[in-house]
Amino acid sequence: MAPKLPVYLDNNATTPLDPRVISVMRLVLETEFGNPASTTHSLGWSAEELVRVARENVAALINAAPEEIVFTSGATEANNLALKGFAECCTSCAPENIRFIAAATEHKSVLDPLHTLASRGYPVKILPVSKDGFIDPGVFSRALETGPAFVSLMLANNEIGTVQDIQTLIANNRKRIVYFHCDATQAAGKIPVDVTELGADLLSFSAHKLHGPKGAGALYIRRRNPLLRLHAQLEGGGHEYGFRSGTLNVPGIVGFGEACRIAKTELDQTRQHLNLLSQMLLTQIQDKIPGVKLNGSPFQRLPGNLSLAIDGIDNSRLIGLISTKLAMSISSACQSASPTPSHVLKALGLSEAEQRSTIRIGIGRFNTEEEIYYAAEILTGAVNKIRTERASINVVSDR
Asked: Could you give phi then psi for residue 134, rounded to 5 degrees?
């Protein structure tokens, strides 16, 4: 029996809500409508308590203290607050004395704010990566030789799945790093994320990447460093310890907290499940389809992520053929509105043909073995169809 269509394999873009998350959010939406900033009645007190519990659950996932969590609308806002907030807070410093360092494969919500800061006069250094997406330790250390820097590095890449050895990079260069910001959006809930072990001063992540709701995210801000200050990007009331004003999204925050609680409790189970299905799908595809290359590290990678370059295939044509049966993507969902090629694949040194032939598969908690077998069958059929059409065109051209 065929699975329910389309089979969802775009979990790096977003994840379906866990039914347990829906359950707690429904209760809040129906009965707990108070504003947590309302301190004069029981509905406000109740909402405040719900946020407090959620903050504890979110903090526990990354081994942080609850008071180190600032709720945002998502990881994009958290990244902007970390980068721009730091730059704008250093009003007593000349912009040219504040250096920012990041990798070429960072998410656009890091690279674009850095581009903005560069246009304002802040020195920004974008580091190259290897063909597997790793930062060379020597290159990283040399980038820090000209003076202390604010470093922003992604833990797990959203397109190719490579997991960076952040802990070693930061530990070996800690004396030269003023502050370290980590974008852990793809990693949280899939692999262990510990702010202490990473050496992170700031860390961003989002609810909808770990089976929570869209519109809720967080920025971890290490409070044990009294010198770490950020200028609020949203002003008007001083909410969230003065870092982010605005009425809190209580249903979203409660859903975020429950998603983090589940992710922490079931982390090992989830990793095993995602690794099993990923390897199963990769093996089937490579057995049935010649000329398939895995982008990114084959070993140090995010569970559930497969970035595949299929020789001789136009990814837009392939996605068009399978779109009613399989839901997957070409690259980052955040970049789909732009006609430009993936900056991540380009940074790996892939040719234009390889970039145009790459698809991204994101396997999630609720995918099944039945769906994996089905996906391999559909992909094989679509690739064979494209290759047959291409061969026919070549034969006609030769005549």
From this structure: -95, 150
Architecture of domain 19-265: 3-Layer(aba) Sandwich (3.40)
For residue 226, pLDDT over 70 is answered with no
Half-sphere exposure of 354 (CA within 13 A, CB side): 19
Q: Give me the helices (H) in 239-266, please.
A: 250-265
Domains in the chain: boundaries: 7-16+267-398, 19-265
Q: Are strands 326-327 and 100-103 parallel, antiparallel or unpaired?
A: unpaired
d(CA 362, CA 304): 6
Are 330 and 360 a contacting pair, CB within 8 Å? yes
Percent of the chain with pLDDT over 90: 83
**What residues act catalytically?**
334
Pairing state of beta strands 217-221 and 69-72?
antiparallel
pLDDT tens digits along 330-365:
976 555 555 578 999 999 999 999 999 999 999 999
**With contact defined as beta carbons under 8 Å apart, do 24 and 258 qualify?**
yes
Are the CB atoms for 213 and 200 separated by under 8 Å?
no
- Prior bond to 290 cis, omega within 30? no
| Alpha carbons 38 and 46: distance in angstroms, whole number | 10
CATH code of 7-16+267-398, in short, is: 3.90.1150.10
3-class state of residue 201 by DSSP: coil
| pLDDT surpassing 70 at residue 229 | yes
- pLDDT tens per residue across span 50-91: 999 999 999 999 999 999 999 999 999 999 999 999 998 875
